[in-house]
Amino acid sequence: MAIARDLMHTGCTCVKSTQTAADAARLMAELDVGALPICGAEDDKLKGMVTDRDLVLNVMAAGEDPAMYTVDRLPQGHLVLADANEEVDITIAKMKEHQVSRVPVIDNGRLVGMIALADISHGMPEAVTGGLVESIRS
Question: Are 77 and 51 contacting, i.e. CB atoms less than 8 angstroms apart?
Fold first, then answer.
């Protein structure tokens, strides 16, 4: 059975908690991603996630100035994580339960990668991917 480390993509770039929504948006555009982990400015510890949807709903639509709104002000729910050594089935179950399409992967408390729906679709059978997509869209 595959483990999370087998499917994750490495080289995650964090947006620092003190950076602005505008910084996060530019970084997402540069990296061509729809979400970034938020890491502490001083300790590099994982603090949360910011998505393109967060930026639209909580910053732009709310009339906030993206150049002044720091990402640490974004509402953070329960952070769903995958352990690098857990079986992929467990990771997929977490994604289904919390209806998320991407999760940070940690190893010994350190961020080592991300698993996104695209990673699942490349590494797992079509039926598994379809089930995950269906549960996220519900």
Answer: no
Write out pLDDT tens, residues 100-123. Answer: 999 999 998 889 999 998 888 888
pTM for this entry: 0.85
The span from the CA of 91 to the CA of 41, in Å, is: 28
Strand partners of residue 50: 36
Q: Whole-angstrom Cα distance, residue 118 to residue 102? A: 9
d(Cα 112, Cα 114) in Å, to the nearest integer? 7
Task: Give phi and psi for 69, each to the nearest 5.
Answer: -90, 110
Q: Please provide the size of the chain in residues.
A: 138
Question: For residue 124, which of 95, 83, 99 has the smallest C-alpha distance?
Answer: 95
**Alpha helices, H only, the chain:** 4-7, 21-31, 52-54, 88-98, 117-123, 126-137
Q: 73-98 pLDDT, tens per residue?
A: 998 888 999 999 999 999 999 999 99
- Burial letters for 40-50: b for 16+ Cβ neighbours within 10 Å, e otherwise? eeeeeebbbbb
The structural domains of the chain, ordered by start, are 4-137 (3.10.580.10)
